[in-house]
Each structure stands twice: as structure tokens, then as C-alpha cells.
């Protein structure tokens, strides 16, 4: 576990920064070799992860956190992903923290409404 921020605090800061479009703060939270796997894609390294967050951030309106559970170096956040292109999407996000940075992220949700919303935008 990190000595500067708890894993719960890291997750809270991550979601607050993403919702605000504060990608400088997000960069500080992510390990250089962060590994991301989600319903809409994968990312290896901080630059790819930030690009993915920025992409979805273009339609992000709100992150409505329902519950956050932390144990050791792991934290799971259950939330509704509220976007301008789809109804709120129930989402689970698991993060693993190493040396005070977010090293692994796994996200799961049903992407069908978001994908349809992206299609309507194009």
C-alpha cells in the first residue's frame, strides 16, 4: 500500500480528475507502464491510457459513484458512467496499485448503448 495516498484516495482522485478533464493529475496517478483492459479497448503505458481517457472524456458528463471497496493494494469502484451519447452505464472498475501509482486497471460494463451512441454521433 502507498504511504502518500491510500488506494481508496488514489481511486477517488482518479475519478475526480477524469470527470474534471484534469489529465495532468491523472498522469501523476498512473504508473508509466500502466496496463488497461476494458470493454472498449486496451492500453499499454501512460500515454495510451491517457489517450483512452481523453477519448471517452469527450462525451463524459458525470461519474456517479455508487460504492468503492478497497483492500490492500486493490480498489473496486462501482459507478454509473453518464455520457452525452447513452443512458447511464453501470460500470465496475478494478485498480491495482504498486509503489503509490495505479499499475493495472480493468473495467467492465455492457458497451452496447455507448457504441450505438457513438454511431449516432458519426
From TrEMBL:
Pfam families: SnoaL_2. Residues 12-105 form the SnoaL-like domain. It comes from the Bacteria. InterPro entries: NTF2-like_dom_sf, SnoaL-like. This is Nuclear transport factor 2 family protein.
Amino acid at each position: 500500500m502507498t504511504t502518500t495516498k491510500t488506494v481508496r484516495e488514489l481511486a477517488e482522485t482518479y475519478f475526480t480528475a477524469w470527470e474534471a478533464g484534469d489529465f495532468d493529475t491523472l498522469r501523476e496517478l498512473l504508473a508509466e507502464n500502466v496496463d488497461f483492459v476494458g470493454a472498449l479497448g486496451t492500453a499499454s503505458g501512460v500515454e495510451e491510457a491517457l489517450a483512452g481517457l481523453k477519448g471517452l472524456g469527450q462525451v463524459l458528463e458525470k461519474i456517479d459513484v455508487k460504492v468503492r471497496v478497497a483492500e490492500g493494494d486493490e480498489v473496486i469502484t462501482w459507478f454509473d458512467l453518464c455520457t452525452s451519447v447513452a443512458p447511464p452505464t453501470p460500470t465496475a472498475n478494478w485498480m491495482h496499485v504498486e509503489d503509490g501509482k495505479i499499475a493495472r486497471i480493468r473495467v467492465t460494463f455492457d458497451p452496447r448503448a455507448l457504441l450505438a451512441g457513438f454511431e449516432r454521433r458519426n
